[in-house]
């Protein structure tokens, strides 16, 4: 009857959803939820709202496609002898492409990008306000702060086929009688045909709709000032058909006619009507929202100086917003979407008074065990602010719903009257969109600028002498061989390879060749693509050639003496190769780039590592990598960097290539195929996850919030295209994001506010999909209620990202001071504004009792620590991680969980699938908790350390480790043997259960007292004093002194 279909699926493949969800299936903890080791961001991504980008795919060598003689490609004599041609005369001559070339875009050198947001150093953060003097142009009106247009009215928006945000003319909804109507099949769809629907625009048509911005259909086309004219460099988004002329983006009228009307549905007049017909069944009404105070427990005053044992025995749970239960039941899973404050202050001044940061933490593409997926010809969205219909809208009656972000009243489209879950008519409030805070839509064609791109994977491999020495090529090639058929994709999937040392090597894998053909380009100052059509090939059609190449590649460079690294030119080649389609480039690099563009020099002086208070060189040495990343972003190319090097590689510079192209960074500082087997195992497991995890292409994400709130700073790996739109050429399930918010208008009239994140992407199967998460939080007006909803983990996570930015824009010491001040200020505010009875000591509300501990742990983190020798790349990598990891793994990285495991029992154990999983208590991170007779497991997220005392319980040694004595424990042990003893079963069940909760595989190291890894274990003992850092108790005394000033 209608085109609506509905099923539930786990992200990879769908199963028909038979009975329809009545509850949020996402609240069921996913089995393989996820995060992947070592993916991390760096620094703030505060970019000019419309940074002038360079144009065209080849900005670095404008005019580099010089007409030159054809390449003399090297035809490998056979698989066994597929080696490099001798250097010198056999080198191919510069390539002259046959046929007409696409004209190069303007020879415009992009102006220098501001490298980081230079705001004035301040010891504390102005939480609510946007950072001062960010070097971006004036920020246009937030898309989600639309002044509501009176409705229902005819579409008064711009007549652009797309620009108007696709507002369909909803003629029918309001005029049809309420109640069940038998709906002829044709009317369900015909009501919604409107201009632009169902067609992919031709490039000519598309000249008006340059970007996915309009596809996600923000309000940019309807309200807000136009993007600034950027002249020749004015391809503001770069998201388009490559063939489109520059400058087409500036299509928004300069004056917005839609900003003036007064909202007829101003919040003050909203009685949150219940529908007459069947009130109980319509979506939950906010009328029931009552702001009873939180349970006293979260506000219970804890004297930190007296209560030593403040860790909960299990995981720290986020606070529950004080919403009515029926609304809370529908709220988004906090692992996907949460706020630093579960109760939103009514005004900015109240927020300022509380001295707590307000922000959102997201894990938008997280692997979910159940994800409702809707196929519908009409995706119902607010006509005014483009919010997707969600569980927190209100239905005025069966035919009208009111937006919970802008309060506009919208018609219920005819098709929405049918509920595919119950297969009944007239129950719009029971539609899956209104029952699930997280939902995915299969997007119709108007959400596409071009046919969805295929999955395209390009591997770029360092084959210099140094790289061959590490032995990593074997692992990469073997992993690819093992997982070739598991790469996400379909029959259109493409794959290609580039290797590089001082020259760039391409591989012709075209169908019909008897063996892979290597093509060497030695002119690295003028990179060109020798045979553009045969280097990225269809994986299905050319699988055998690909396999041949992967089998031969590790040996091909065995004897190389080439020590140079032309990474920059290799990246340019990758960009050119991927530009026509978009896709993913995976870069494997083992040393500092030394040749061509992007060459770097060592900036680290190891002798000064520990002595300098302020760390230099946290920002990039060149803007080459960032500029190239922005070009990549414009062409839907993401670059992931795998750095395997024990030597300084200037990650601060190299990392920009991933950070701004929405890629990931992986780092293996001590990788060696023989000397460090644990690292090899970690690399193997990471690669398996990396190659097989879900991937979304050509993605954008927009976060909307209720009018009155404003989002101002984003953290993560992406490029901020417009004020609130993140460009994500790739999105992966292990990426986290954070945003800071301020309260721009008094929220006095509101009882609750909502936040919605919409991620539009192309699946590896070529479907355009939109994943939408909606969260609703109450508005409160007392300091007590604000503090009662403080989410200590989310607050710490956001502060960590802010501190990374501060380290780069100001200094490390400034960032450290700001972290401590964050704790001092909030505890002072609590003492003066919430506590009614003053008592001595350092008092924190129970919900923030871990705050000083987490802040101290952050200060001792590699990213922020001082006084200890910390390699610059290690520090920068930790900073990446802090900005990019989803919160749950971030917390383990900052404050690992410590358990005693030599005396595990079944008492209080979980029973999962007939497996008994012991649940030992989480211990404080202090050597006080260790003893020589025990064995202790430290779970730091991406790594687990099992430390054993010298007099370790002999039964543990024999029953779990299978060794007769302590001395017999092998030095590099990183597996628990499978022994047939109760102790072994228990220990493995526990470690296995911890591992199952993340999608990557944390490597386990067994650490003896004299093991070199003992230092790593002890460094995580954050409650203890070190030569250069205070103990937890000393830190508390310091805070107490500061709060009582
Ligand atoms: Zn709206």
UniProtKB/TrEMBL annotation:
Q: Biased composition, Low complexity: where in the chain?
A: 267-281
The UniProt entry lists membrane topology as:
Peripheral membrane protein
- Domain Gelsolin-like, residue spans: 917-990
GO BP annotation list: COPII-coated vesicle cargo loading; intracellular protein transport
Pfam families recorded: Gelsolin, Sec23_BS, Sec23_helical, Sec23_trunk, zf-Sec23_Sec24
Please report the name of this protein according to its UniProt entry.
Answer: SEC24 homolog A, COPII coat complex component
Feature: compositional bias, Pro residues: 86-97, 109-124
- Which key words tag this protein in UniProt? Cytoplasm, Cytoplasmic vesicle, Endoplasmic reticulum, ER-Golgi transport, Membrane, Metal-binding, Protein transport, Transport, Zinc
Which positions fall inside the Sec23/Sec24 helical domain? 791-891
Domain Sec23/Sec24 trunk residues, every copy: 452-691
Q: Which domain of life is it from?
A: Eukaryota
* Keyword Transport in annotation: yes
Q: Which GO terms describe its molecular function?
A: SNARE binding; zinc ion binding
PANTHER family named among the record's database cross-references: PROTEIN TRANSPORT PROTEIN SEC24A, SEC24-RELATED PROTEIN
The cellular location(s) given in this protein's UniProt record come to: Cytoplasm, Cytosol; Cytoplasmic vesicle, COPII-coated vesicle membrane; Endoplasmic reticulum membrane
Record the organism. Answer: Paramormyrops kingsleyae
Where the record annotates domain Sec23/Sec24 beta-sandwich, the positions are 696-780
GO CC, sorted alphabetically, is: COPII vesicle coat; cytosol; endoplasmic reticulum exit site; endoplasmic reticulum membrane
Family (UniProt) = Belongs to the SEC23/SEC24 family. SEC24 subfamily.
Query: Which InterPro entries does UniProt cross-reference here?
Result: ADF-H/Gelsolin-like_dom_sf, Beta-sandwich_Sec23_24, Gelsolin-like_dom, Gelsolin-like_dom_sf, Sec23/24_helical_dom, Sec23/24_helical_dom_sf, Sec23/24_trunk_dom, SEC23_SEC24_subfamily
Region (Disordered) location: 1-281
Where is each Zinc finger Sec23/Sec24-type domain found? 379-415
Which ranges are annotated Polar residues under compositional bias?
Answer: 1-10, 37-47, 63-82, 184-196
Taxonomy, top ranks, is: Eukaryota, Metazoa, Chordata, Craniata, Vertebrata
């Amino acid at each position: 009857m209608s085109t609506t279909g509905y099923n539930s699926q786990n992200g990879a493949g769908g199963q028909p959803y038979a009975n329809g969800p009545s509850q949020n299936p996402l609240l069921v903890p996913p089995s393989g939820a996820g995060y992947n080791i070592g993916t991390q961001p760096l620094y703030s991504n505060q970019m000019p709202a419309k940074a002038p980008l360079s144009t065209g795919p080849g900005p670095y060598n404008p005019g580099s496609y010089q007409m030159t003689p054809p390449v003399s490609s090297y035809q490998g004599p056979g698989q066994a002898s597929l080696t490099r041609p001798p250097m010198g005369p056999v080198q191919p001559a510069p390539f002259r492409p046959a046929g007409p070339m696409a004209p190069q875009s303007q020879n415009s050198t992009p102006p220098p990008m501001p490298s980081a947001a230079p705001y004035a150093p301040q010891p504390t953060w102005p939480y609510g306000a946007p950072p001062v003097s960010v070097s971006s142009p004036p920020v246009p009106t937030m898309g989600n702060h639309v002044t509501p247009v009176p409705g229902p009215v005819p579409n008064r928006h711009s007549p652009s086929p797309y620009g108007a945000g696709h507002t369909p003319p909803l003629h029918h909804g309001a005029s049809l009688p309420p109640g069940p109507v038998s709906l002829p099949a044709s009317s369900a769809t015909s009501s919604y045909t409107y201009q632009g629907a169902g067609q992919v625009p031709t490039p000519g048509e598309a000249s008006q709709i340059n970007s996915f911005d309009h596809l996600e259909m923000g309000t940019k086309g309807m309200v807000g000032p136009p993007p600034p004219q950027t002249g020749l460099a004015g391809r503001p988004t770069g998201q388009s058909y490559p063939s489109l002329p520059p400058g087409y983006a500036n299509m928004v009228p300069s004056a917005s006619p839609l900003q003036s009307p007064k909202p007829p549905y101003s919040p003050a007049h909203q009685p949150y009507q219940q529908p007459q017909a069947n009130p109980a069944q319509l979506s939950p009404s906010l009328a029931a929202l009552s702001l009873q105070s939180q349970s006293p427990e979260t506000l219970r005053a804890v004297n930190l100086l007296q209560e030593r044992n403040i860790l909960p025995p299990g995981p720290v749970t986020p606070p529950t917003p004080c919403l009515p239960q029926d609304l809370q039941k529908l709220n988004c899973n906090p692992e996907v979407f949460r706020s630093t404050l579960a109760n939103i202050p009514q005004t900015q001044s109240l927020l300022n008074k509380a001295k707590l940061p307000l922000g959102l933490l997201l894990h938008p593409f997280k692997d979910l065990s159940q994800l409702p997926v809707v196929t519908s010809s009409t995706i119902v969205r607010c006509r005014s602010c483009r919010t997707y219909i969600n569980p927190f809208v209100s239905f005025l009656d069966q035919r009208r719903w009111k937006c919970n972000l802008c309060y506009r009243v919208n018609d219920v489209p005819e098709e929405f009257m049918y509920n595919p879950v119950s297969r009944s008519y007239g129950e719009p409030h029971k539609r899956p969109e209104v029952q699930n805070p997280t939902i995915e839509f299969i997007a119709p064609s108007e959400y596409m600028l071009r046919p969805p791109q295929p999955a395209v994977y390009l591997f770029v491999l360092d084959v210099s002498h140094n790289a061959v020495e590490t032995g990593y090529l074997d692992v990469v090639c073997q992993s690819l061989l093992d997982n070739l058929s598991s790469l996400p994709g379909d029959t259109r999937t493409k794959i290609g390879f580039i290797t590089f040392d001082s020259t760039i090597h391409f591989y012709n894998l075209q169908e019909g060749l008897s063996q892979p053909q290597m093509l060497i380009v030695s002119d690295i100052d003028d990179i060109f693509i020798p045979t553009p059509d045969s280097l990225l090939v269809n994986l299905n059609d050319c699988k055998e050639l690909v396999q041949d190449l992967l089998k031969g590649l590790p040996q091909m460079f065995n004897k190389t003496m080439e020590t140079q690294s032309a990474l920059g030119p290799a990246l340019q080649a990758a960009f050119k190769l991927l530009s026509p389609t978009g896709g993913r480039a995976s870069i494997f690099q083992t040393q500092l780039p030394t040749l061509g563009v992007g060459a770097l020099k060592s900036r680290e002086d190891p002798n000064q590592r520990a002595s300098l208070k302020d760390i230099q060189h946290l920002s990039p040495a060149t803007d080459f990598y960032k500029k190239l990343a922005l070009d990549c972003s414009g062409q839907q190319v993401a670059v992931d960097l795998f750095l395997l090097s024990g030597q300084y590689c200037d990650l601060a510079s190299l990392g920009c290539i991933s950070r701004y192209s929405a890629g990931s960074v992986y780092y293996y500082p001590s990788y060696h195929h023989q000397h460090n087997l644990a690292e090899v195992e970690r690399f193997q497991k990471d690669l398996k996850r990396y190659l097989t995890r879900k991937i979304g292409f050509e993605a954008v994400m927009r976060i909307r919030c209720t009018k009155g709130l404003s989002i101002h700073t984003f953290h993560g790996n992406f490029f901020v295209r417009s004020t609130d739109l993140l460009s994500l050429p790739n999105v992966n399930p292990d990426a986290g994001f954070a945003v800071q918010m301020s309260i721009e208008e008094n929220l006095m009239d509101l009882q609750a506010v909502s936040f919605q994140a919409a991620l539009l992407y192309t699946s590896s199967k070529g479907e355009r999909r939109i994943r939408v998460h909606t969260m609703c939080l109450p508005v409160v007006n007392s300091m007590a209620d604000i503090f009662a909803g403080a989410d200590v983990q989310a607050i710490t996570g956001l502060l960590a990202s802010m501190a990374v930015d501060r380290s780069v824009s100001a200094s490390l010491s400034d960032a450290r001071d700001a972290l401590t001040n964050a704790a001092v200020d909030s505890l002072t505010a609590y003492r003066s504004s919430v506590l009614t009875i003053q008592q001595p000591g350092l008092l924190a509300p129970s919900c923030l009792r871990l705050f000083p501990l987490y802040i101290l742990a952050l200060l001792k983190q590699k990213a922020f620590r001082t006084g200890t020798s910390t390699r610059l790349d290690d520090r920068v990598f930790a900073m990446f991680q802090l900005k990019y990891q989803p919160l749950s793994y971030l917390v383990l990285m900052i404050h690992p969980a410590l358990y005693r495991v030599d005396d595990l029992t079944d008492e209080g154990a979980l029973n999962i699938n007939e497996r008994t999983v012991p649940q030992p208590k989480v211990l404080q991170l202090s050597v006080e908790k260790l003893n020589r007779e025990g064995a202790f497991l430290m779970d730091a997220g991406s790594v687990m350390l099992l430390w054993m005392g010298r007099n370790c319980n002999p039964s543990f040694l024999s029953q779990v480790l299978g060794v007769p004595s302590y001395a017999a424990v092998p030095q590099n042990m990183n597996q628990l043997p499978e022994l047939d003893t109760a102790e072994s079963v228990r220990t493995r069940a526990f470690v296995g259960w911890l591992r199952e909760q993340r999608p990557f595989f944390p490597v386990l190291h067994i650490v003896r007292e004299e093991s070199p890894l003992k230092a790593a274990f002890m460094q995580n003992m954050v409650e203890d004093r070190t030569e250069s850092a205070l103990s937890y108790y000393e830190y508390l005394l310091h805070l107490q002194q500061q709060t009582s000033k």
